[in-house]
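Input (structure):
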């Protein structure tokens, strides 16, 4: 039996949010997300199918205390989905001839004086740099302190020898972008990604240009509200951007448009360098029907997110959640079953 709270919330959603469930898949997804309301699901969902937006809707509360509703315009911290813009920034610099992914990292940040001097930018994009031990204590307060703490940490493995997903590796890539461009990472993203693509709602939560009234409050697994990500230098690169489902849709459409994202950049981002591993901030898989499936997830202790792109089926699914109630993986797997 549906609870009273469920019924109240569900009536609010259909009044306050546009719902474009015109297809079987759209109706199935809307039903799936609605079924998780009693489990604490709250967020926003976007579905494009065959070139048409068929679902673009908020669910639950952007703030549990004020009862402000999530909408399709609500901003969520998308955590590691932000790595896609870091990888793209590096590839854009390569396209401009300013660097290459085969360059040694030491060329830009200085020599390590050990085997890490043979680490390339490509190794870092593959999560196989071996730059530092997983247990290393790194200083994220400033760029210089971060780089020094990496040097002091000592290598974990030879470059290219082992795969280990590394947030700090993408912090290192942000440092390279800043050093090469002479700009802060957020300014580089604004000028080279968000403004050209017209992603006006995407940025870091501490930036004055971000409309704070649109920010969702994130909740940890104890249902405690957490504050927005503070301005710490090392938050740049591995994630921590805030954005909307609509802006992420714009991003994927840009990747599909060779007039906006050069085919060479797209092909490199989506090339399967290491099967069954995330590289260049994309996971590359196939469905049981042998169609392509690209995806990227993000998670913090207050937000969970998934971006699911099926290019051969012309389907894009984005869902952003403003809590860490362990729902994203469950929903992700159910959507995969629907799409298989």
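Output (sequence):
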């Amino acid at each position: 039996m549906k609870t009273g709270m469920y019924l109240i919330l569900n009536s609010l959603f259909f009044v306050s949010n546009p719902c474009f469930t015109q297809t079987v898949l759209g109706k199935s997804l809307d039903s799936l997300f609605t079924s998780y309301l009693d489990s604490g699901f709250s967020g926003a969902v976007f579905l494009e199918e065959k070139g048409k937006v068929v679902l673009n809707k908020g669910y639950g509360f952007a703030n549990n205390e004020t009862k402000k509703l999530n909408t399709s315009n609500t901003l969520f911290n998308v955590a590691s989905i932000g790595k896609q813009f870091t990888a793209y920034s590096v590839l854009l610099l390569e396209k401009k001839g300013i660097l290459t992914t085969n360059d040694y990292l030491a060329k830009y940040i200085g020599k390590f004086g050990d085997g890490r001097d043979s680490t390339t930018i490509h190794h870092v994009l593959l999560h196989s740099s071996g730059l530092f031990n997983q247990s290393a204590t790194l200083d994220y307060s400033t760029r210089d302190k971060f780089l020094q703490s990496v040097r002091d940490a000592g290598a974990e493995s030879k470059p290219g020898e082992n795969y280990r997903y590394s947030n700090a590796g993408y912090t290192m890539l942000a440092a390279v972008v800043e050093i090469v461009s002479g700009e802060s990472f957020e300014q580089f993203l604004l000028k080279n990604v968000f403004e050209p693509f017209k992603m006006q709602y995407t940025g870091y939560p501490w930036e004055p240009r971000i409309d704070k009234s649109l920010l969702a409050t994130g909740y940890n697994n104890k249902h405690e509200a957490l504050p927005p990500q503070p301005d710490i230098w090392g938050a740049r690169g591995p994630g921590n951007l805030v954005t909307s489902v609509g802006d992420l849709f714009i991003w994927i459409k840009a990747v599909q448009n060779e007039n906006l994202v050069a085919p060479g950049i797209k092909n490199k981002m989506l090339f399967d360098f290491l099967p069954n591993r995330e590289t260049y901030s994309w996971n590359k898989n196939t469905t049981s029907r042998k169609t392509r499936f690209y995806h990227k997830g993000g998670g913090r202790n207050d937000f969970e997110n998934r971006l699911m792109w099926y290019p051969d089926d012309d389907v894009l699914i984005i869902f952003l959640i403003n809590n860490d109630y362990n729902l994203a993986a469950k929903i992700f797997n159910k959507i995969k079953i629907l799409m298989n």
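Notes: The first helix runs from residue 4 to 16. Residues 4-79+218-224+243-275+285-339 form a domain with the Beta-lactamase fold (CATH 3.40.710.10).
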